[in-house]
Structures are given as C-alpha cells and as structure tokens.
User: Fold these one by one.
Assistant:
Number 1:
Amino acid sequence: MTAPAAREPLRIFRWRGIAPLLLTLVLVGLLYWLFADVLVRRSVEQAGTDFVGARVDLEEADVRLSEGVVMLRGLQVTNPRKPMTNLIEAEQIVVNVRMAPLLEKKVIIDTVALRGLRFGTPRATSGAVEGREGSPAAEVARAVDDWLASLPIPEFSLEGLSQVINTEAVAAESLATLREARALAGLADSSRAAWMAQIEALDPRPTLDSATALVRRLEGQTIRSLGLAGARDAATSARRTITELTQLDDRLAALQTGVDSAVRQARQGLVALAEARHQDYAYALGLLNLPSLDAPTLGPSLFGRFAAQQAAPFLYWLGLAERYMPPGIEAQLHRGPDRFRASGTDVLFNKREQLPKFLLQVAEASLEIGGTGAAAGDYAAKLTDLTSAPALVGRPTTLSAGRTGGQVGPETVRVGATLNRVGAVARDSLSALVAGLTMPTVTLAPLGIDLGLGRGTTDLVLRRFGDSLDASMSWESGDVTWRRLSATPADTAADTAQAPALPSQLSLQGVAGAVRSSAEGVVWRALQGLHDVRIEARLSGLLARPRLAVGSNVVRALADGLQAELGAELRRAEGEVRARVDALVQERVTTAEQAVQGFQSQVQERVAAERARVEQLRRDLEARIRALTGGIPGIGG
Amino acid sequence: MLLLKLLQSLVKALNSDGTPGQVGAGIALGAVFGLTPLVNVHNLVLFVLAMILNVSFPGVMLGWAAFLPFGFALDPLFDAVGRALLTDVPALVPFWTWCYNTPLVALTNFNNTIVLGSFVVWLVATIPLFFLARWLVTRYRATVYARLQETRVFQAVKASKAYNLYTMFHP
C-alpha cells in the first residue's frame, strides 16, 4: 500500500500577480495623466450639451490638479433655439476647483473668471443635437414648443374681405349648439320619466286617501257625540295618521331636493346652450375668415407670435432651472450617464450639511466690446451660488450684469436675477432693462408690413412663485420705420391719396371686394404716421402653460382706423352670419327649452302639489283633534 | 487575434488551468465585469482581487465574455432591482445617503439604478454560479475534453504561436 499524496495547501493569494497589477495601475495612472485634459474637455462638452440641449464645444482644457485649477479655452455654447448661433463664446475660463469633493463625485468651484466673452456669434456648423429626445433639455424645449404651438393666437387676415360672404357654407352638423340641444332635450325627457317613476314608486295616494277619509269622518264630531272612549280612539287614530303624513312629507322633501338639483342641472344646460351658440358664431365667422376689429383680438393676432417668441427663451431657461435646481432636499432622480449599456437613473441622496453635486460659488466676467456696433461698450457680470441643490447651499442663486462704460452702444443694460429654491417652494425673479439698443424688426404678416422697432427700450420683469408665473415685457421705441412687404411706387402713391369712399348699397360680394381694397389703404394710412410704438405683453398663470396677453398702441390705431371705415360693413356681414346660425339652431333649441320646461313643470310642480296636500291634511287633522278633545287632558294620549 | 486569444483562454481555462474550483471562482468573479457597467470603482477593486487572488485568470476572462451579453440583455431587470432598492426601501435610504456623501464610496456609482441592480444581482448569483461553474468544468473535463482534444481545431488553437499573456496568472 502506498501512502496517499499529501494534499497541496490552499493558496489564497497569487503573489506573482502583484507585479502585473502594479504595472497595470501605473499604466492606468499614466493614461490618465496623458488624457486627463481630453477627458475633462469631453466631460465639459458632454455635461454642457446635456444641460443646454445644444452643442457645447471646447477647444482645449488644461488640468492642473496640484493647483486645483482647470483652464478652459475656446468655449462655444450653442443657442438651443438658434443652432447656427452661439449663445455665448468665451476665449478663456479659469476655474478654481476644490479637490477633496471630487472624491465624492462632487464639483465645487470656488471661483470662475471668464475672459473674452462674446454673445450671439455665428457658428461654422450647426449646434443642434440629435438623438437626445429623452434628455431634460429636449423635454423642456419640447414643452416650450408645445406651448408656442398651442397658444390661441387668432388669425387676422384682410383676405377674408375679398371673399364672397356665403352663409350657406355654415353647415348644421358642424354646430355645437345643435349637438348640445339634442343632448339637453334627451336629458330633460329621460330625467322627467325617471323622476315621475320615483314619485309613482313612492305612492302617496293610499296615505293621502286614508287621511282624507279620516278628516271627513271626524268632521263635526265631538266628545259628546263619540263618548270619552270613542273620542280617545279617534284622537289616537288621527295622531297616527299625522305621523304617517309627516313620514310621507319627509320622503317627498328628499325627492324634491333631488328634483330641484336635476332641474338646476337642466337649466345650466340652457346656459351652456347660449355659450355654445356664441362659439358657433365664432366658428361660422372663422369659416368666412372675416377679420375681427376688436383691439383685444387684434393685439394677439398681430404681436402674439412675436411676444411669444421673445418669451420662449425665458420659459426654456426657467424650465431647465426647474430640472437642475429643484427646490427642497428630497432625493432627486436624474437620467444616468450615456454609455453602451442602458443609462438607468441616478438617484441623488442630498443631505443637509453635505456638499451638493455641483456648486459654483462665484463667477465673474468683464468684457469690452469694441468698435461702434450696437452692443459696443464695457460690461460686467457676476453669478453667485449656482448649484444643483440650493437647499443644501442655503443661499439663492443670483445674477447681476450691467454696462459699466463706453462711448457708443446702448445707454443702459441692467440685468438682475434671483433663483431662490432654498425652501420647498421656488421663488424666482428677473428684471432686465436694455435701453438704446437696436430692437428687432417685427413682421406683421397679416398686414403685409414690416415694423422696424429701431433703437428703443426693452423691459422685462418676471416673478415666479411655485407653479405660478407673472411676467411683463415691453418694447418701446420712438424711432420706428414702416415698410410694406410688397409695396410698389404705384401702391405708395395710391396709398397717400384719398381712399375711395365705400358705396352704401353694394351686393355682399361687391362690398367684400371693395372693402378689401380699401382696407389695405386704411391699414397703411393708419400705421405709417405712427412713430412712437409701445408693445406690451404679459404672461400669467401656470408656469408650464402661461396665458399670453398682448397690447400695443399700434393695435389701437389700427382698430380705430379699420372701425371708422370698414366697421359698419363688417358688422352687417357678421349679422348675416349670426342670423344663419340662429336659423339653423333655433328649432332644436326651442325643443330643448320646452323639454326642460316640461320637466320642471311636471315633476317639480307635482312634488310641490303633493307636499301642499300633505300639509293641508295634517293641519285639518290637528284641527279635528283639538275639536274632539276640547282641551281635556289625557284624551287621545 | 482577439478571438484566438479568447479561444486559447477558453481552452486553457476549461482543460488545464487550475482546479475546477479555481476556474469556477474565476468565472464567478469575471461575471461581474460582464453583468455590471465596466467603468466603475467596484470593478477596479474586483479586478485587483482577480489578479491577486489565486483564481483562474482565464476563468475570469471566460466569465466576463460569457456574461457580457447577459449584462446588456438584463439591463431592464437591473434597472428595476436598483430602482426598488434605491427608492422603494426607506430603511436603506440612510445607507445610500452615506454612500452618496462619502469620499471614494461615492465613486462606486451605486446611486445609479443599473450599476446597483446589476451588482446586487451578481452578488446574489456569485455563490450558485461558482458551484455551477465548478460542476460544469468537472463534467467537461471528464467527458468532453478527451474527445475534443483529438479535433483539428483544438490542436490548431493549442499550437498557436500567439503569445499567451495569461501564463503569468496560471494558478
């Protein structure tokens, strides 16, 4: 027999693996040292692109870990709403970063100094990003675009005046009033049948008949005629019947409450019918494309799109702040990093007295825009406490910027903003005033006119509290220019001449053509003499979908001019349209009204009558009891 | 070349490198690189362990390669597991908060649903995976290997001149 071979002892560590391990770690360190700049450059580009929702390009990054300094050169941030334009461009950015928080994956920046800032510079290539539909920036952009698309901006077109006013185009089946009237009549009829059935089911007749018979039987009876025992029995019977009548009345009262509610609902249906008819008027007028000459309608028609476009960037940046700077300290959910694998979701577990994931304590920029351009001058800006978790920092983010000097360029540039998300409810405010800067040209497409606002003053005041937004914007200029988009010298000459008088008796079609040709001249004459223009817009309501109201002295001048010369004809045309709608819906509306009236009279009055009869019988019985007992106690219990 | 090396490592792992237990441990350890997103601190730590522990390094590579497709395929599951652990268990919130706010630990990215979910799934599966892999390697060596080594493909792979880095890590 041979002895079993000794079992080799279990070796846990592979010591000869240490050398290659160290070699690998050195290699990793070396690679990081070689490529740290590239990594930081790409990280800045990726994080910036994710945040802005458009390309962020960086020429070079220089990481000096020992000094805690990162130098960035050639930063270009694309304007997400204008991909061929940079929102901001910076020649050099010096960032002082705290090193220790990096071990917690937290970026705490003490100071940032920016040099060579420029705004609105053109890009060589488009900065639009594709394939980021799920990113916060893309979602915010989509929400703003949806808001823009859904704004109820009424159409205004002089083209409508050239059309034949054909009221036959208004089709009955398209009218909401008819649909609602049919539904209301059906509801009233079915409600009447249902409530009548309930009254029948309640069956008050036996109780009432029995009480009536008792009243008759006791009529003229006294304690003498019935005797003591007979009077006691009669009084007891009468009191029992009164109790039954009271119970019946309670049931009828409950029924009456239900009936009254149903009647109210039916009558509200009648009010809704009237509203539907107004909607149908608007719908029918819209079919005929007749322009409204009311100033409140004209304002949004002419300047609504312009004002909304100007407001959209503010809503976009507020939306982004909402995503990246949420109020409160609850765990936040963010999309995970892009990688070959699924991104997943990053959950940020913020804790008081801990550092936020990102904090920029102070960023300062000063720039000098040379030359004699519209924006020439010296500017300074300061941003403080920009962070991903304001509740941890305990201070609001502030931004102040302004013009500090210069001989040419705008007279005043003053911007101040506070994003206060320290508490559970966001409170943001922004005010901006730019005076003496050339403002954009507004194309009034419905009128075929360009309005050059020239040098003027732009003012913005915005306040946000929780989900509510209240913002007012104004553009004011005393140096506007008007230009007809398709003007010819002949047009201009004709415009300056006296407008032809409107014929008083024309066929509707003839009136329309004459009205239109006259309208263009009226518009031009009303506006070309206007040199001072003020446009005001107000956003209010929910931040996600604020309402927009727009007004302007241009609108008032235009409305006055058009009303003076074309108002009567348009009102007549509108009257015909309304008459056509009335003719189509009146019969059905009358039927619905009768159905509601029938429901109310038959059911409500029936219940009221039954209750009145119950009450009368009860009083009669009480009178009989008094006559029977003659005030003697103990009779009838 | 890469494919050849992979085949080599497969052959070595299954046929000659170390005991079935060492190969099984290597496969179980290597599975983490396939199941979890690669660039994370926990993988660096486990890579260091794979190098200094006396497990089959080709087994590690085999585990990595074998579980890589599962990593991609099971991402929705990992996401659900990670989300449940991070957001649906209040008792764990203090722990996650500590992880998130502690130097170096924060670099593990365990606050990401996929990273945490895949890591936890791997952690749970490691021991069963080790025993399963050890049993399979034993069965393989007893039954398949004898016939396989007669095939031309096997001979070609075994005779390849390509340098085998993994010899340094033979147990």
Number 2:
Amino acid sequence: MSILVIAEHDNSQLKPATLNTISAAQAIGGDITVLVAGGGCAGVADAAVKIAGVSKVLLADNAAYGHQLAENVAPLVAELAAGYSHVLAPATTTGKNLAPRVAALLDVQGISDISAVESADTFKRPIYAGNVIATVQSSDAIKVLTVRATAFDPVAAEGGSATLEAVGAAHDASNSAFVGEELAVSERPELTSARVVVSGGRGMGSSDNFQMLEKLADKLGAAVGASRAAVDAGFVPNDMQVGQTGKIVAPDLYIAVGISGAIQHLAGMKDSKVIVAINKDEEAPIFQVADYGLVADLFEALPELDNKL
Amino acid sequence: MKVLVAVKRVVDYNVKVRPKADGTGVELNNVKMSINPFCEIAVEEAVRLKEKGTVTEIVAVSIGPQQAQEQLRTALALGADRAILIKSDSDLEPLAVAKCLKAVCEQESPDLVLMGKQSIDGDNNQTGQMLGALTGYPQGTFASQVVVEGGKVNVTREIDGGLQTLALNLPAIVTTDLRLNEPRYASLPNIMKAKKKPLDTMTPEELGVDTAPRVTLLKVEAPAQRAAGIKVASVDELVEKLKNEAKVI
Ligand SMILES: Cc1cc2nc3c(=O)[nH]c(=O)nc-3n(C[C@H](O)[C@H](O)[C@H](O)COP(=O)(O)OP(=O)(O)OC[C@H]3O[C@@H](n4cnc5c(N)ncnc54)[C@H](O)[C@@H]3O)c2cc1C
Ligand SMILES: Nc1ncnc2c1ncn2[C@@H]1O[C@H](COP(=O)(O)O)[C@@H](O)[C@H]1O
C-alpha cells in the first residue's frame, strides 16, 4: 500500500490536522508520502520531512496553488494519485473542498470524514449528524478519504527524515480567482485542537456577553466556541460554530453555556472527554450528555465560576 | 441567466434517526421526509436572484424515488419554474448523483448551479465538488454570500479560519452554507400554483449514467453512549468535581 497525504498549510505553517491525517494513514499501513502544494511553501515542505513516519515529501510550489483553489490543485492531486492506493486529506474546509473534486476526476467514490480504519478498504464514519456510525467498504482502486482529525491521535511532528522531491506539474484552470479573505485572529488556542473549549449559545444574549466566556476561557487556556444560534444571531463569527455543519471538537473539557443541546450541536462535541453544561432549563437536552450539569442562570454562574477558578 | 438547483429528499432534521436492530440500515419507516435544509437555502438564493432580475429561469432537479416529487413541488412552490425528477429507487452515491447532474447540465446549459453543501442524511459534502470535476466548472463551496456581476460570480465562503472570497467564471457551481439566507415559507396560493408547474421525469439509464455503487454499507450501529452524568448543586461543587474527580482543571 502507498498512501498520499495532502498537507494542510497556509504556505508558511503546516496545520496540525495533517498530523492526525498521517496517523490515519499509519492505521491503514504502507508507505506514506506527503504532498505540500502551495505557493511559496518550501518552508512547509521542510517541516513535513521531519514528521515521524513519512517516507517522502512532494513539493508542488506554484503560484496557481497558492490559495488552494480546487480547480487547480485537484488535477495535480489526481495526476499524482495514479501511483498510490489511497489519497487522504484532513476533513477541514480545505480538505472537503478538494478531495471530492479529486475523487471525481479519478472516477472513484470518495469517503468523507472517516473516524476509524477497519482495514485498507473498510472504514467507519458518522452519518445523520453522528446519530449513526456506518461501516463502509470501498471497491475503488484508489481510495480517496477525508479524515476526522479528532478521531486519530496526531503523529509526532519531529523525528522523521523523509526525502524531498519537487513536482513540476503546473495546473492552472484559470476559471477561478482568489479575491480576499478575512481571517479571525486570536491569541487563544485553535478551536479544533484546544485542550479546553468554552462554548456559548443563544442564551448568552449578546456579543458583549460573550466577553464573560472569553475571560473564563483565558483563565482556563481554552478556545471559545459557539452554537449555530449564537453565530446566526451575530454574537460571534462563523468560524466559531461547533456542530454537524461547523467544527468537530473533542477536547478534554467542553463547557457549554446557554446551549440547549440540539443533535446538530452534539454532533460536533459529544466525543469530548468531560462535558459541563450550564443552563437554566433543567430539561435541556444538553444535560443528557453532560458529565456535570449545573442548572443555573449563566449570568450568575459565569462570574462566580470566574472568581472561583 | 438560467439556474439549476439540486434538491434532495432527506429525513427531516428534527428526526433522531436510529439504526435498525439488525444493523443493516437506519430505521426509515414512517419518518418525516423533507427537502434537505441546505438545498432549501439554495432554492431561496435562486429565487432571490430571480427577484433581483439576475436570473430568468430556475430549474429544480432531484434524483430519488417517485416521492421526491414532493420536495420538487416544494421547490416549485418556493419559486422554481420547472422541475426534473431523475427517478432512482436505490439511494445513489454522490458520484452517481453528480453524473446525473452533469447530464442535466449538458441538456440545460445553466449559467449557475446552486446546491447544498451537505446532505444531512449521509453528511457527504461531496456532490457539488464532484459535479465541478465532471463539468470542469469552478466551484464556490460553503457559500455565505453570492454576488453575480459581469459574467462572474463572487462567492464568499465559510472556511475554518474565517471567510474567503473567490471570483468564479460562469458557468459555476455554488454550494450553500447555513448563513447564505433564511428560506421563506411557501404561501398557500404558491403551493397551489406549484401543482401546475411542469415536472419532467427521466431515469439515469435514459441519461446514460452508470449508477453502480462503489461503496458497500457493511453495517450501521449507534455511537458509543456516554455514561450518565450528574447534576451539581452549585458552582463550588462544579469546581471541586472538575479539580478532584475529573482532574481536567
Ligand atoms: C441543517 C442544520 C444544520 C445545523 N448545524 C448546526 C451546527 O453545526 N451547530 C449548531 O450548534 N447548531 C446547528 N444547527 C442548529 C440547531 O438545530 C439548533 O437550532 C442550535 O444548536 C440551537 O442553538 P442554542 O442551543 O444556542 O439555542 P437554543 O436552542 O435557543 O438554546 C438556548 C439555551 O440557552 C438557555 N438559556 C437561555 N438563557 C439562559 C440563561 N440566562 N442562563 C442559562 N441558560 C440560558 C436556554 O434554556 C436554552 O436551553 C443546525 C440546524 C440545521 C437545520
Ligand atoms: N439525490 C440527490 N438529488 C438532488 N440533489 C442531490 C442529491 N444528492 C445530493 N444532491 C445535492 O448535493 C448536495 C450535497 O450533497 P452530499 O454530497 O450528498 O452531501 C445536496 O445538498 C444537493 O444539493
């Protein structure tokens, strides 16, 4: 077996989800190659050669790949994929945007968001917002998979010594262009890899009130998340949404404040090790998954919690 | 400008789906079926573009059983002009669906294809991107804003780090995220009118699409259940438990 893992990066830094994806590749077993496609991304390839368990790094450094436009990167990956049994990408927005386009170019049916590897062709994945776990077997010659990062422990970022090879192939479909981006800047840990996550819902009432959660998060070294209702109401930006259609998190500690616990929200956090819920409605479904539930008005409980930590 | 909107019939998002006792599939007897919420957002966006005068015709397409007509009628009631049902009694994989949609694109030559980012049953998040590969059209996935101007569509995308805007040449594929718009409700007169709008039926075979599955469902099971938790009586007790019992702070 030979596995091609698509590295996730921003041209300067390798994103941690890559390490979880390589861990899934190891569970499949075989020779692991990492592709770093981007523009001005040689530094990322230098980091990738040090990852434990990687035998080769391919560097496709071309302006056309700089913003990870799927129209340009997918044909590159599809061309390279011919030499591999598996192509893996993290199930991030970048990976989900790219992998199916690669799969269709190869005329194979990709498998999204795998949460376990049963064998080289059989995988588990959550469906119906995580209410059901499906075990599926692929009959395609090349398996194109996206990997749920929280389900696989990351491999070590250091300790490896892969060979580095440049890939010349330039694909530029010239039918899409990058216009701009607004990226959230935060001093806090990244939501999907934080050890502690403090999330607020509609019950927070306003954007200003979220500052109470941020204060608490800073005390705990936590990331801040939110329910869809809180994002839709404009309390916080979209990149903070946790759930079926937002981010999947599985921290050691998840504190849900003013969140009712709809199945779509639970889909994104119920694999957390310890769940705390603070809600004034004792019937709220979030209490069914909470290890520790506190029935209280959050406007009293949060300041008190902040004081006592 | 002509828009194609792909709508899927799925289990309603309020239903808590359970695996069948024998693990061969999910329990679908007597559950409420609806239009996939993301597809509803796609229909709404098409209708808004028509109301603005950008779009002249909206064609809704669904691949599914005969009953998927109900979801197409919903799309027609919301403002689509006509509908196409590609009838298939087996549940098609995203690649097969994308191949059917590609065949429809060849017949209809749309300027824009609006789809959901994800079906809430299979949670695949693949079909739009696959259709992009098959047609060669550019893709704007997870859209929270869509602006058509000067032969291009500018799509603002919800990405992990925030928002990203791309300019795509038309024809293009856009898959919707939740915040693109808030779908309207169909009015009773529009529901009545929708019954008279044209709805064509065809089959994947007629379109020349091979729908043979590539992936076999071996088993479904319920996810691991969490052990029941406890209610704490006070913030003090919560802090004590987190420190001494769970040892997470
Ligand atoms: C297709 C689809 C996809 C979706 N994807 C997601 C997703 O990815 N993530 C997600 O989160 N949702 C998602 N949703 C939405 C989901 O169904 C719920 O509507 C949403 O999670 C509700 O958010 P909430 O719990 O903050 O709000 P509500 O359900 O309104 O709950 C607010 C809670 O706050 C409590 N509260 C209010 N005031 C106080 C107070 N002073 N003190 C203490 N408690 C208080 C209330 O008791 C209540 O339980 C999706 C929905 C659909 C249809
Ligand atoms: N059977 C289908 N009929 C019509 N559209 C579909 C079908 N399956 C998927 N789609 C479209 O593709 C989107 C993404 O679906 P999926 O890739 O299954 O998550 C949906 O929101 C629909 O717009």
